[in-house]
Design brief:
290 residues; alpha/beta; Wheat Germ Agglutinin (Isolectin 2), domain 1; Rossmann fold; five-stranded parallel β-sheet; three-stranded antiparallel β-sheet; 9 helices; 14 strands
Length: 290
């Protein structure tokens, strides 16, 4: 007999009660069952097990080939990329409570997939997530190397303005700044000098990344001390920089960063940290701020 105060049960009932408790614990605990994913090759109809390499068509949804069929050139009229994981597994790999880490995880998880397309006539030249990620890391390391971003993580984060029309360099610069915990400050290219000066001074931006058509305006703001904190200017679309101090081409920053592997590490943000600062009031509303 097993006694507990006034409760008396036999050994059989006591054993059953323990079993019920163990079953209850099993179903209430956060237990993730093991899941195995399988695919069927669209050519030979063979099974592709989870973890095995398969080839996905970039144009045909749900079209997968096994490695053997891909090697003999099946479906070669469309581009294909290798994949080993299910989209649910990739989602788990990407998820994070930090935006910078989520972006970095996405670049790694989808490295073989199309990311940006550059129009060339009637066709697009596609760049993969992996190719864009490499340029982001190089540019981020280059910013550290020239001194725009500190080599050591500090309490005070760096503001950097980006001003241009839509282009690939704009996105690379934005991702690179977030990667190093700097704060991108987008400035619309159509704003007046007064508005651009206000935004740069309001954020104390130490650098501006712009296109060559805006270069003279920012050089004047810097050299006349209209923006005292502004020291560096990076030109997105120039091949050779003008003979001005601390003026660099975008490609030269990437080239410097490519040689500085130690500066490519991610600087994580906290969930409540500022990610980017966008002035959405418009060109007219800023005229009222004094």
């Amino acid at each position: 007999m097993v006694c507990c105060w006034h409760l008396v049960v036999c050994k059989r009932c006591h054993h059953l009660s323990n079993m019920k408790k163990r079953l209850a614990d099993l179903f209430t605990k956060d237990v993730t069952p093991a899941v195995t994913y399988r695919w069927v090759c669209n050519n030979c109809f063979g099974t592709i097990e989870s973890g095995q390499q398969r080839w996905k068509c970039v144009d045909c949804a749900g079209y997968d080939l096994c490695d053997a069929c891909h090697k003999i050139g099946v479906h070669s009229e469309h581009d294909q990329f290798p994949e080993t994981k299910h989209r649910f597994e990739l989602k788990e790999q990407v998820n994070s409570n930090c935006c910078a880490e989520t972006l970095n995880n996405a670049f790694l998880a989808y490295k073989n997939r199309r990311c940006f397309g550059l129009r060339q006539g009637d066709e697009y030249k596609w760049l993969t997530y992996g190719q864009i990620h490499e340029r982001v890391l190089n540019f981020a390391a280059g910013l550290v190397d020239v001194g725009i971003i500190s080599k050591k993580q500090q309490t005070k984060r760096t503001f950097v303005s980006i001003c241009s029309r839509n282009n690939l360099q704009w996105f690379i610069a934005d991702y690179a700044l977030i990667h190093k915990a700097a704060i991108p400050v987008p400035i619309h290219f159509s704003l007046s000098d007064k508005d651009m000066t206000f935004i740069n001074n309001n954020t104390e931006a130490c650098a501006v990344i712009c296109t060559s058509d805006l270069l003279d305006r920012f050089i004047q703001m810097r050299d006349t001390k209209a923006c005292p904190a502004l020291k560096y200017i990076i030109i997105m679309d120039a091949t050779t920089p003008p003979k001005q101090p601390n003026v660099f081409t975008f490609s030269s920053i990437e080239e410097r960063g490519a040689k500085k592997k130690k500066y490519k590490q991610l600087v994580p943000l906290q969930p409540n940290d500022l990610l980017t600062l966008v002035y959405t009031s418009g060109r007219y509303a800023l005229d009222y701020i004094d």
